[in-house]
Write a structure and sequence with these properties.
This protein has 510 residues and is of the alpha/beta class. The chain folds into 3 domains: 172 residues, Rossmann fold (3-Layer(aba) Sandwich), CATH 3.40.50; 104 residues, Transcription Regulator spoIIAA (2-Layer Sandwich), CATH 3.30.750; 199 residues, Transcription Regulator spoIIAA. The chain is built from 19 helices and 19 strands. The strands form 6 sheets. A 6-stranded mixed β-sheet has the order 3-2-4-5-6-7. A 4-stranded parallel β-sheet has the order 15-16-17-18, with helices on one face. The chain has a 3-stranded parallel β-sheet with strand order 10-13-14. Helix 3 links the parallel strand 4 and strand 5. Helix 13 runs parallel beside helix 14 and helix 16 crosses helix 17. The longest helix has 17 residues. The model has no long low-confidence stretch (mean pLDDT 92).
Amino acid sequence: MSNEKFLYNRINSKNTDFVMWMGFPGIYSFSMSSLGYLWMFKTIDEIEGVNIERICSDTENTQYNISDVKVFGFSFSFDMDFLTIFSMLEKYNLPLKAKERDKFPLIFAGGPVVSANPEPYKDFFDFFIIGDGEDVNLKVIDICKSNQDKTKDYILKHLSEIEGVYVPKYPKKVKKLTKKLSECIYTPVLSENAFFKDTFILEMSRGCANRCGFCLASYLNLPLRCVPYDELLKTIDLGLNYTNKIALLGAQISAHPHFHDVCKYIYNKIQNGEKIEMSVSSLRVDAITPDVVKTLVAAGQKNSTLAIEAGSDRLRKVINKNLTEEQIFDAVKIARDNGLKGLKFYGMIGLPTETQEDLFEIIELARKLKKENKGFDISFGFSSFVPKPHTPFQWCGRENTKSLEEKSNFLKKELHKLGITAHVSSIKWDYWQTVLSRGDASLNDLIFKAYKYGGKLGAFKKAAKELKINSDSFATDNYSFEKELPWDFIEINPDKEFLIQENQKLICSR
């Protein structure tokens, strides 16, 4: 794209005919704000022997023909991404099922969805990257390139021997990859057409030590790893050479031992006359301090998001969100007194052990926040609980849809009475997200049919009915600890025994 600015030295002319496509299941503007996707592109683009091209759902013209492409990789971050991936494969006349693609490029996927549980999608991809892919991607491409004159089966057999690669044709235990963060991952290509226009995103940390019982982002990325402080400053300075917009990313950035030092570094630059716009992905309530808020305000941020998850102290303890109401009120006061104009509180409904009393406590919390902070913008956003693999709550069934919709309507109605805006995610779509999250290989036919029937809610119901698949067995059933789970073949720390102990500690003791 003519308006793109590359922050690394590209090799302008490569003496190779090996072509790879890097697919993003969304439009171009979203892809240009996807840090992981762009970083993978950069690392492969720096290889002398590979011509790589980014392909998005709205790509109209390509530099290379599909007949020239040897490998087509996809970023797979959200459960429903498969719908867009399938449409992109069909756009380039590629059969959806791997067994029908002998003379076509190898198709693979990486990202949190397939790292957690690739089984519902195994018929459609030749292989998967399980876990952090920065290093293994380079090994994969090297094998594919070195053996491009060999059969597809020969290449897949070799790929199956690499740690962190899952080849469905050659099933075995697969170890989830965990990378040390010795370097800082950052936006390598800036664009004014990105969703976050010309914004330089940098990863401060990966993982989260808080270990909320439902949180895949925490458990899939343990242990918490932090980029060295000197690397962060060097990367911030690199970004500020190209743009004045920076964003700090991480599931728990405030846990970085130098988070406050980074804020001070940026604050001092602003005080010295530099015009910097800075945002953060989200903050923990106990990370709201005057110096942090002053930095955000000086950098142009007017609002922030706080994840409180639940309205009662009791339920927050159940999910391992050890946060008191007093801390919440202290954080709001600090935010208000130091210049923020508003806060959005993120919560979840349908959590294990939740009662109607817990919902009443959300309303009461909101009422008190509104009363004590007149003129301060307070809003709420909710999703419904989706049990995720590799978490202590993976055995917990989801509440039925009718019950959750009643809770959703109750919250919206009661918060509206208080003059507070509330948004709740689609309960019906969250149901199907749960089915896919806890799904097994039997769902390959379901998602194929659901896609062919248009990919709407009715398409999933119709496909399940035709195939006689009991979707509730994945969504609402509670599982025993003895049950063999579809993702058990993925070796990950902490292991299953630890998750069982954590489940019992959090749920059974309350």
